[in-house]
Amino acid sequence: MENHEVMAIDAAEFAAMKTEIAELKTLVRYYEEQLRLAKHRRFGSSSEKSEYDVNQLSFFNEAEATADVNVAEPELVEVEKHYRKRTRLTTDRLPKDLPVEVVEHDLPETERICPECGGDLHVMGKETRREFILVPAQAKIREHVRKIYSCRDCERDECSVPIVKAPQNEPVLKGSFASPEAIAHIMAQKFVMGLPLYRQEQEMKRAGIMLSRQTMSNWLLRATEDWLEPIYEALHEILCTHDVLHGDETTLQVLHEPGKPAQSKSYMWLYRTGSDATHPIVLYEYQPDRRAKRPAEFLKGFKGYGGTV
User: Does the pLDDT value for residue 56 go beyond 50?
Assistant: First the structure.
């Protein structure tokens, strides 16, 4: 009897030891992984890799690396209108001026009969339920039809026939089917919301729109050169006329920059007007380093006072 009890105790102790050994092995693997991650953070490259990135494109220079102005823009193919709604009951704060769409639910006249006596039913009250409606970006084609006029009398008399065309706005990018709205949306998604072009490409693909990130990159660069750079330069000139300016720089990483390793630091300089400015101006300037000549070159002609942001 005693032998059986000893064997039972030994078996229980052996099972407990096996469990403890398994837990210790798991703990060792955990600490080994933590040590590996710590070494990687200290000595390894910290750039995030993605199977969708082209040569490990960074958020900063994705458009420049993806764009190819020598590639012809694809032909515009008509697509069906994409319309999708998302609804969610919410008690969060919403702007008071949001438009309200009222949907009334009523009984047909044939059903407005009392189930007890057969008399007519009347409205005794209403129940209201509110939903917050979100409508994602909608895709559509805007077709510009320009009418061209000529003179019947001149045509009949066989003299020179004047041709008069109805006025219309020039395209935002010559030779492109891009619209101002489409470019603004892509820019806002990328630079404000932090959504890379390859993800925008995937989102459009799910909606049946085949628009490559190469085309979107070309749009961003051309729109920047044609429309944003002149505005930037004009703001730069106005900025340097102020008496008080603030400036500072912050580090960022630019991958595959010529002459610099991927792990090296680059700098984004910020310049802004002081609190006395009627119309505040904030400008950014990228530079590969933080040498004193960078702000000296940017603020050439400035004769006021400066400080850090």
Answer: no
DSSP notation for 191-218: IIS---HHHHHHHHHHTT----HHHHHH
198 and 53 Cβ atoms separated by less than 8 Å: yes
Residues 55, 256 contacting (CB under 8 angstroms) = yes
Task: Note the pLDDT tens digit of each residue in 74-96.
Answer: 666 555 555 555 555 545 678 88
Find the mean pLDDT for residues 154-180. 88
Q: Residue 55's pLDDT is what?
A: 45
What is the length of the chain? 309
What stretch of H or E contains 154?
Answer: helix 152-157
Contact 81, 140 (CB under 8 A): yes
In whole angstroms, give the CA distance from residue 33 to residue 202: 34
Confidence (pTM):
0.64
- Identify whether the C-beta of residue 283 lies closer than 8 Å to the C-beta of residue 271: yes
Reduce the DSSP state of residue 249 to 3 states and report it.
strand
